[in-house]
Amino acid sequence: MNENKKQSGDWKMIIGGIALIIVLFMGVKLLFWGLEAAIPQNRLNSPPPVSASQSPPAGSGGEETAPSFCIHCGRALPESFQWGQFCPCCGEKMEGGK
């Protein structure tokens, strides 16, 4: 009779463990849903707005100065960047300085 009682307790432990896993999984899902609602994803991944009519400024003496922002992705470029190089952020070639 003691063995029968032990089997009943084992099943309760297994079902309780499964229920605990389900409750924890749903809690994590609810937590991430709440975070997504509080912090919209499009605000985190969008690059800074760049005017489509933005063109490189004309330098003196017929030389073009290096751009400060990529014309493709809009991200800031290093000061040593020159026309004809590839953007370190998006990999597009920056043409238009010549």
Write the layout of secondary structure elements.
Elements (H helix, E strand, L loop, with lengths): L1 H37 L2 H5 L53
Your description of this structure?
By secondary structure, the chain is mainly alpha-helical. The protein has 2 helices and no strands. It is rod-shaped and about 85 Å long.
Strand proportion, as a percent range, falls in under 5%
Q: Residue ranges: pLDDT <50 for 5 or more in a row?
A: 59-63
Largest sheet: none
Order of helices and strands: HH
Radius of gyration: 30 Å
**Oligomeric category:** single chain
Work out the helicity level. Answer: 40-55%
Q: Outline, from the CA principal axes?
A: rod-shaped
Work out the helix count. 2
* Cα distance spanning the termini: 94 Å
Please give the number of β-strands. Answer: 0
Average pLDDT for all residues: 75
Question: Which structural class best describes the helix and strand composition?
Answer: mainly alpha
Features:
single chain, 98 residues, mainly alpha, 2 helices
Task: Provide a brief overview of the structure.
The chain is an all-alpha fold and 98 residues long. The chain has helices at residues 2-38, 41-45.
